[in-house]
Amino acid sequence: MSDWIHVVAGVLRDAQGNILLAQRPVDKHLGGLWEFPGGKCEVNESAVDALSRELHEELGIAEISFRPLIQVRHDYGDKKIFLDVYLVTDWQGEPVGKEGQPLAWVSQNEMEQYDMPAADEPIIKALKLPTRYLITPPDLSVTEVLDQLKVNLEKGERLFQWRLFGLNADDWSETLAQANALAASYDASIMVNASVDDQKTYQLTSWHLNSRQLHDLNERPDGVVMLSASCHNEIDLQQAEKLGVDFCVLSPVLPTRSHPDATPLGWAVFKDLVEKVNVPVYALGGMSPEQEAKALESGAQGVAGIRGLWRSA
Asked: Which of 33, 148, 218, 303 reaches 20 to 30 Å from 60, CA-CA?
């Protein structure tokens, strides 16, 4: 890592969900592009200390509240950048461009209108994702799964994996259509765990790949707007990044009742694996709301699960 430049970036998000962007000076590397505020870590300076210093020097803010968001490595050819990215949700002072840099508060959808460095692409993906990814429990009837989906939507959950294998084709497609309509009314997303044939037949635009499907593909499928994958090791994660998935799950992190014979990764191994890819990764296996803080601290996008997260009533 000696030839990598360690940089911190702070993603400031206000109460309305808008994100602060700053424009780089035209005479610097990647000049004129818009980015998340931050800068280089000094020698022997921690990322957290660098973040506080940089945001005070660049924006004039202090007393920030933040959490890890994602780590990104990107080789620009002339420079190799290692980004430590934090989501900043509270601060003292009004952000201003203290170095003369233009600033813009933009919605997450508006970020696509701004030219940004390539290293920021995984950050944008992470920003669009919640900290929980709920998987539908097995053996639910059509009525039960739709009723329980609504319960979870009303509780604020916004990302789901639709994993129903016991229905006939007509019930499956009709139930999925109702679920998508329900989720859309809450501005939520449903990733469908389905076969390759079903993805083509039903023209699924949000598709979750199992680990076998992940390695059967050589490129991201056309027409798929959101793509996710199940991963269990470094090879899986590398393949997921190669396909350009929007996020993945890595499991099992902790012991689980559903797979008692599987050897759990543990948080240290999970953290090490996540740091090797530029993809938002959810921790799966033994997860509950109480594990969310540990997952974020370990570099995860958040937690994924069935029993520990799904509410039946």
From this structure: 33
Please name the residue that has the structure tokens 């699960």: 305
* CA triple 70-205-117, angle to 5 deg: 35
Residue ranges of domains in the chain, CATH in brackets:
5-120 (3.90.79.10), 132-305 (3.20.20.70)
pLDDT band at 179 (very low <50, low <70, confident <90, very high): very high
Query: Token match 């959490």: residue?
Result: 67
Mean pLDDT over 32-58 rounds to 95
Q: What is the identity of the amino acid at 244? A: G
Instruction: List CB contacts of 252: < 8 A, sequence separation 6 or more.
Output: 259, 262, 263, 264, 265, 284, 285, 286
The residue behind tokens 């009742």 is 257
Cβ-based neighbour number of residue 283 at 10 Å: 31
Write down the pLDDT at residue 20: 98
DSSP lists the bridge partners of residue 300 as none
In this prediction, residue 1 carries a pLDDT of 54
Structure tokens at 144: 């039960």
